[in-house]
Predict the 3D structure of the following.
Amino acid sequence: MTGTASGRVPPPPPDLGLRAAEPLARHTYLRLGGPAGYYAEPADRAALERMLSWASEAGVAVRVIGGGSNLLVADEGWPGLVLSLRRCCGDLRWGGALGPTGVRAGAAVMLPALARSAAARDLGGLEFAIGIPGSIGGALQSNAGIGDGRSIGPLVGEVEVWRGGAAAAAPLDYGYRSTSLRGSGALVLGATLRLTPRPRAEIEAEMRRLLQARQATQPTAERNAGSIFRNPPDDAAGRLIEAAGLKGLTVGGARVSGLHANFIVHDGTASAADVAALMAEVQRRVFAHAGVRLVPEIEWWGPGPRPEAFEIAGAG
């Protein structure tokens, strides 16, 4: 979906408060990407509903941006309406009707913040999320997790989505780095999760260990989007890329990290096109070396045909 058939977004009513041509590079971890047709941070559910109603009537495609990781935006930008839900869906509600181990998290709640809030209540299960720089909404699209197999999917009870002009409950079917929400057109508003009692000291000790391991093995100090490719069955994308001798490979200003081969980093001189071209080159060389076709884990936003790297079946 790339907006209207002409690619031009019609002007919205001024009282909606949409910002035209907002640079999406400001909102992504890679700090790359051109402008959105329009951008907004609705203050509440009523404002969100009005924006979605306008977009539906005008034939304008809508996408939601969360933490901005796991995302590559084209240099040309994306011509639709981009929404940040941090103001209208950033709430946390603990306990109550959900019971002592339940939480209702808005789509814009960041995973590390949720993990810390759970720890403060002696609730475990989210320790793995402490180093994932994404939001609940994004995590529910991709079944966010870490390399040891832990992910958010098993913790989810019910998901609240906006579909067909109204809020509704939706089930969540999940697998490796994918869920039934991905590509469904549903806008995630939030979800309930069930956690497990665990002493706070144990939770915090594990989170410290996970953060230390992440900082030692991943290029956290450089601009990146997280893991670039999904791990193939019974293997690791980083191992395959390193085995093909591709650490340090560059295209333009984009470079395969020398610390972890499944990360692409840049020093501020790269373009989104550089990153996409480097991804495609990595895919070609890994296939030539190992016979494995790497599938992107990150998502592509852009007008027109997708770049070569994202044309592999199952990508995006």
Q: What stands out?
A: The first helix runs from residue 45 to 58. The first strand starts at residue 19 and ends at 20. DSSP finds six helices and 18 strands in the chain.
